[in-house]
Structures are given as C-alpha cells and as structure tokens.
Amino acid sequence: MGNNVTGKPIIKGLGFDSFGLGSNACTVDIDEENDKILRIRPFHFDEHYTPEDLNAWKIEARGQTFEPGFKTLMSPLSLCYKKRVYSKNRIPYPLKRVDWDPEGNRHPETRGSSGYERISWDEASEIVAKEIKRIHDEYGPYSILCEVDGHGETKVVHAAHGCVTKMLELCGGFTLQSRQPDSWEGWYWGAKHIWGMDPLGQQSFQNNVIKDIAENGDAVLFWGCDVETTPLGWGGYMASRLCFWFTDLGIKQIHISPDVNYTNAVHADKWIPVLPNTDAALQLAIAYTWITEGTYDQEYLDTHAVGFDHFRYYVLGGEDGVPKTPKWAEKICGVPSYTIKAFARYWAKHAVSIAHCNGGSYIRSCFAHEPARLEVALLGMQGVGKPGANQFKFMEWTLFGIPTVTPLPPSTAIPSIGAAYRGWVTGTVPSFIPKTMIPEAITNPPVQWYGHIGAGFPREDQFTGPFTFPLEGNDRLHMVWSDSPCWETCWNGGNAMQDALRHESIECIVVQHPWMENDCYFADIILPTNTKFETADIGTDNDSGQWNVIFYEEQAIKPVGESKSDKEAVAEVARALEKFGGAYEDLYNRYLGGKTDEEWIEVGFKTSGVPEDLEYDEFKEKGYYPFPTREDWKEIPAGLREFYEDPEGHPLRTPTGKLEYYSTGLAATFPDDEERPPVPHWIDQSPLHQERQYLERGRQYPFLLVSNHPHFRVHAQHDDVTWLREIETCKVTGPDGYKYEPIWVNPIDAGKLGLKSGDIAKIYNERGGVLGGVIVSERIIPGAIYQDHGARVDSIVMGEGGLDRGGANNLIAPIPTTSKNTVGEVTSGFLVNIEKVDVFALAEEYPEAFGRDYDPDCGLVATARIVEGA
Ligand SMILES: Nc1nc2c(c(=O)[nH]1)N[C@H]1C(S)=C(S)[C@@H](COP(=O)(O)OP(=O)(O)OC[C@H]3O[C@@H](n4cnc5c(=O)[nH]c(N)nc54)[C@H](O)[C@@H]3O)O[C@H]1N2
Ligand SMILES: Nc1nc2c(c(=O)[nH]1)N[C@H]1C(S)=C(S)[C@@H](COP(=O)(O)OP(=O)(O)OC[C@H]3O[C@@H](n4cnc5c(=O)[nH]c(N)nc54)[C@H](O)[C@@H]3O)O[C@H]1N2
Ligand SMILES: [Mo]
C-alpha cells in the first residue's frame, strides 16, 4: 500500500467527530511496510510550505511570544492508535446470534448472554434485507430505529456513522435516535436563555480571546476543565502549551473541581475543591458577596442586561427567605465560606476569564441548566467582554480562538467536506426520539418531549412541541440498527437500556462496528466494519490548533479480516434489498450517489474553500494543503468586545438582545416550571431527581460520583489498548488478574470505609452496581468518589439492579433527564454508595461471567462470544 508505492509516509487525521465532517482531528504521518502499520508520528506542515507561505501567526504580549509549531502536537491517544487497528477485539467476520432464528424463535430475552456463529457477508446481508422488508410491510418504516450518532473516526467518504440512514431514506424512512447536546447540556438548556448563544457557552465569540487574555488578563478560572485530558482525544497538546505560556506571563490559573485533574496537578496556582454538581450554590454565594459588598458592575448591567433586580431579590433571600450567603453555600458545596469570600473579592478586582473544555459534570448532571446560567450571570456582573474578561472553550473547534486560521468563523469546520459522500442525515426527519428516552420509547411508548433537541437549533426550538413517538397512526419500534453500539456505557441509565434491548417488541437488532463490545452483545446480526487505515478518504485538521489543513488520506493497509467500511457494509444490504423491486429498485446505485470513492474525495476537495488555482492533482501529489492565516486577524474584536462597547449595535440573540437575568422566553413558555424558572436558582430536588447528599436518599447513598471523560480513553474507545492498560493508574489489577477500572477515594472516606489501594469495590445505588479498583488519594475531595466514564461493559448480572465487572458506571446513572422540560442526560454528579467486594466469592457465584475469554492487556476479546465457526 501507500509507503511501498510512493516511499512517503501516509497522511491521516486521527480524532473523533460526531457529525461526519471529517474534522476534529490531529494530522499524523503513518509509516507502513508490507501491509503493516509500523508507527504513527507527528505530521510536519513545512514539507511543501514555508512560514511565509502560511503568513505564520504570532501572539506577542508582556515581552513574550507565542508561535505555532510546524509539526503537530499529537497526543498518546493518537500515537497508540495502531493498537486499535490490530486489537484482539476486532470483529473478524459477520456474525449471527446463535439463538436468534428469524424464521422461528427470536429469543429476545437471551440477548446479551448468547454466543455468536460465523456467517458470510452474503448470508448476513440477505438476512438483514429480509428483516427490513418484513418490518416495512408489517409495521412501516418508522418501526426501525437508527442509532447513528456516536463519535466516530474522522472519515468523510467512508463515514463512520449514519450510512444506514442514507440508505433507508431512499426506501421509505426510519426513526432517528436524536442526540441531545450531551457535551454541553447545561449551556444548551440554560445559558442559551440568558445570553442566547449557541451551541455552547460563548462559542460564537471566540475570536482572539487567547490574545486578549495574554494582553489583558489577570487570571483564568478553569471551571471543571482538564486541558491535559480532553483536547487529547481531538487535537493534541496545544492547550497544554498555552497553559505553560500563561504561567510564563504571570496569568493566574485557578481550578474549581472536585478532583485534582491532570491539568490542575500541573498548572494550577490554586485549587478550589467543590462537591460534584453543587457549583450553583458556590456561584450564588459569589453573587451574594458582590451584591452585599457592592463590587459588581451595576452600570454595565443597566445598559447590557434585563431582569437583574429579580436575580438580586432571589440571591438576597427575598423570594424564599434564604439569603444565598457563603455560609449557606458552604454546607452544600463543601467550599469554606472564607474561601468563597476571598475568591469573590479577588475576581471582582481582576480581569478574569473562564475556560472550559465543555464543563464537566455540573454541565451533565440534574438541573445542569442552573449552574450554566449562573456562570453567565456572574460574568455579566463583572462586565463580560471587557478586556481580559470572557468565557472560552479550550478545545476542539475553537481550540485557540484565534482567527489565525482560515476560513472564518475560525470555529467551524472547513465547510466543504460536508459535500463529499457521507451518511449523516442533516436537518429534521419526521420520526425521531431523543437519545435519552430510547429505553422508555422501546418499552413503554408513547413518549413526549419538547424541541428537536439537536445541538445548533435556535433557542426557541426548546419551546416547540410537545413531540411524540410514535407518530400518530404508526407502530412502536420493532427493529434497531446501530453503528455506534455504546449506548449502555455512554448514556443515562444503561441498565434500563439493557432491559429495553431484550424487550419482546424488538425483533431484530443489527450492529455494524469494528470492535466486539458493549451493545454488540445484544445484536442479532453483526457486520464487521473497519478503521480509516483500511480505506482512502479526505480529511481536515482544524482542531489541533496550529494550522487548518486539508489532506488526502491514502489507504494504509488492506482491510483487517473480512471487514468492510461502514459505507460498504450498508451497500451490501442495499444490494440485497434490490431484489424486492419497487421502492428498493436500483437502491445500491442510488445509495452510492453514482460516484466512486475517488470521485467523492474530489468533490470534498473542490468544495473545501481551497484557492481556485490549486489543482486536485497537485493537492494529491503534495498530500495536504494548509490554509494561511488571515491578513487582518489582529483587527478582529476579541470575544464579546463589540457587545461590551456597543450593546445596542451588537445585540445578543436573546429576545431583548441583552443578558436576560429573567428569561422572557422561559417565563412565557414554561411559567410553572420550578426546575428551570425564569431566574436561575439553586434546585434541591424534583419528583424525578433526589441527588443531593443532604436529602433522605443521601443517607443510603452518601457519595457523589464524578464520572469524568476518561484520561486514557475517548469514551467507549481505547479501552483495549495494550500500551495504555499497562500504565499503573489506567487500570487496577485485582487479585484475580483482571484489570479493574480505577475508583479514587479520599483517605478520610477510605479510612471510614475500611478501603485501601488495590481493593476491589462496588459502587452502587438502587439501579445496580459496577466494580472498580480502589486508589486512595487526596486528589479527590472527601464525600465524592471518582471513576472515569466509558469503560467496556462486562456484565455479571444484566438489567435493572444489575452488576458490571467492567466499571461502566453509566449503567447506574439516573434514567430521568436534566429536568422536566429538558431531555439532557444526567451522567455524573449522582449519588452512590461504595463497599469492598471479594472477587473470588463473586467468581464462585457467577462462573460464566468470570470465565469469559479475557486478556488483561486488552480486556474482553472478540472470541469471548464467538462459539461457532471461529
Ligand atoms: N458518565 C458519563 N457519561 C457521559 C459523559 C460523561 O462525562 N460522563 N459524557 C457524554 C458525552 S459529552 C459524550 S460526547 C458521549 C459520547 O458518547 P458516544 O459518542 O456514543 O461514544 P464514543 O465512544 O465516542 O463513540 C461511539 C461509538 O462509535 C464507535 N466508532 C468509532 N469509529 C467508528 C467507525 O468508524 N465505525 C463505526 N461503525 N463505529 C465507530 C465507537 O467504537 C463507539 O462504539 O458520552 C456521554 N456520556
Ligand atoms: N481523552 C479524552 N478526551 C476527550 C474525551 C474523552 O472521552 N477522552 N471526550 C471529548 C468530549 S465528547 C467532550 S464533550 C469533552 C468533555 O470535556 P469536559 O466537559 O471539560 O470534560 P469532563 O471530563 O466531563 O470534565 C472536566 C473536568 O471537570 C471537573 N469536574 C467534574 N465534575 C465537576 C463538577 O461538578 N464541578 C466542577 N466545578 N468541576 C467538575 C473535573 O476535574 C474534570 O476533569 O472532552 C473531549 N475530549
Ligand atoms: Mo461530548
């Protein structure tokens, strides 16, 4: 393949993207020999282009300079990616669940525990085509659920996700699992109502924010932000470099989080430990301090905000008789009142910006809209948009918020790539279900909610509805097709999903995936797909933070096993459907759009905004094209500066154009919503959520679980990487040799509980339990325990009340959504208890679960389930 032919390394973009745009990647070089990947290494931009060609950008401040490098700052998660390609967990050939008989008994109840037999691609596509046809005839197309929204490898022509929707769209339709804005729930459901911005926090106004901080900032608050972890799955180490530079410039870095995360440990000048999902109390006490001490900007509020009086009234206790004092907050959030006051006073006196990657658990917990709104409320009280005072996103899309890379706005993908073939269905479809409501929609339809809920919809969309599934006159769900089979370990209340996938109404489950894991075990038919190393494609890197670049991705190796790309796997089924004629006629060609892969790649190139005089052949020969920095980049106003200087001329996208401390939209549409009232509040509980330690339920489950984005994984991905698993803090080896997912416990709690490092413990609540290996550490605040999210499910007992060996704590996350009129996920900051377990006793009780084909270096391996034809 590539290397042998051209003698050059092969260019790829490594990262993950939810929208089939091919973006969110870091460019890398791959060395390949004899159809084997030897190594993955940083990519150099300067092979064909000089800094002058690129009009290299440079930030100068306080006598120091920050410049982009000319090789990518790739992360370990990219470096190790060949281990994913050659994982022992790759699905080798198409599989059928042994006790699923489409002509006879389908045994939905044994999904999750059955074995699999090898079948051919022809058999697999025949069976699936027949099932689609049958479901269409018996129930109609909306009885097929498409789960196609996970992060996927950044592929464009061979899109990781959504290919099946492209095919089904051409022969009748489908029901879409609609992904809610999971990364930024609080910003979407809350902050948008105070400053109108979309889709995340201050996303729309990131230009030159870093430059502004470098020139004018005194401090940056890292409010639930770990740049030494979360940019790694996407761009790499640019954010890390910037934090070191901030230190050089004397810019203070203050961290507010329950844990000493990987950034905090290296860069923090101060750590303010806070209990999970109690930030709203801390924020209200800061507002109280500023109001009572007169240290906020009333003049700014007079011209830039509406409804501040309502907020002030609430903060001072007018509404509920409870002034939101630092003493009041201390009991809830665990931050001493003197720290709150000192911090509030420091903030009021200095130019302070807030950094997020996305926000951490308070942004994905119950009532997450409140702390998100309160953050904007605080920013407004200190004149957001003034020099050195903005909010910014320290990761992907806008990594550096410098318009040094074209095209503008700098935060968007190179637009064109969307024009190449890809399966993702944009816009709205008639029949859809919020992802958070899938288990309920399967087992207990109809379900209802407000809004289309997709990231990017305008604020008012949250007020449309209610929508219902199933649509009037249509049947419930009977078939599921998933190309992102990790619902259980990534969404809310995974145990309920395990029950739903075994529900008698579901007659057929098809999964297409490269690896045998998580929801794959519930599939009746499994189609093996492949990684981007095994196909040619086009890609972009507009994330890693130095240069925007578009590149041609040569095929590096032959497909592993019998795998096909996701696009090709669906094409096989399209071809098998053709024999039914009618709506299925010529489906294969229609699905592929009448172009070869190479022609689609060229479409992507032509529409990518590259200069007119750049020929496709030249691009292919060089392999890449980096976009030069805009000439006028320094003149572009920083962050919200224009709104700050001229609120009338540069209004926000709220109904009044101002910061709405009293949301007129919420007041008009949901006047009785006590969980998301017009003025941001501290919300204790609701009929569906009792997740506070001081409530009755807190006695039974006294700890708040922090379930961060994994340092050593990207969600459900990378859990099988040998190089990572050998790192001591990545997994804890149990006495039985199994590598358990770590659980951090504070020494004070560990003492009380009789836990020590290396113990295997169970985290549990009424929804079930998951195991993990204890690490006793002061890096976690007492009262909270920490276990990363996304570990691979390894069920001991399935379903509600179940037990998981893998440590996939989403299985026991709350099932209800953010609040009654919002369908966000609640996946962190919820109550649990913890106790030590004896793994040998468990092994005796559950010999099947403890006897699975397991390799400590990889975890469960594909053969663990293949019983015939292996
Ligand atoms: N507890 C807890 N839960 C959380 C969060 C949290 O902070 N805590 N965060 C939430 C957030 S922000 C997110 S974004 C979600 C992430 O949730 P998801 O996006 O659902 O998870 P991923 O593991 O990123 O990827 C989805 C699936 O795509 C697969 N995949 C990757 N490449 C390909 C490909 O080329 N083809 C096919 N067919 N499949 C591919 C992966 O193997 C995986 O199974 O999790 C959410 N859940
Ligand atoms: N390595 C890696 N990188 C990733 C991902 C991944 O899975 N792995 N996922 C990607 C995706 S899809 C997303 S959305 C982003 C997520 O980016 P973020 O939302 O920023 O990530 P989190 O890990 O959820 O939270 C960041 C930090 O918030 C702190 N925190 C947790 N709970 C609380 C709380 O209640 N209050 C406060 N104040 N702080 C808290 C913790 O210190 C945590 O390290 O990361 C992306 N990058
Ligand atoms: Mo996310």
Automatic annotation (TrEMBL):
Keywords: Metal-binding
Metal-binding found in the keyword field: yes
Signal peptide residues on this chain, from the entry's feature table: none
Residue ranges of domain Molybdopterin oxidoreductase in the record: 90-325, 504-574
Superkingdom to which the source organism belongs: Bacteria
Family matches, as Gene3D superfamilies: 2.20.25.340, 2.40.40.20, 3.40.50.740, Dimethylsulfoxide Reductase, domain 2
The keyword Metal-binding appears for this protein: yes
Residue ranges constituting the Molybdopterin dinucleotide-binding domain according to the UniProt record: 703-815
Record-annotated Pyrogallol hydroxytransferase large subunit-like N-terminal domain positions: 34-82
PANTHER family, sorted: DIMETHYL SULFOXIDE REDUCTASE DMSA, TRIMETHYLAMINE-N-OXIDE REDUCTASE
Family to which this protein belongs: Belongs to the prokaryotic molybdopterin-containing oxidoreductase family.
Protein name per UniProt: Dehydrogenase
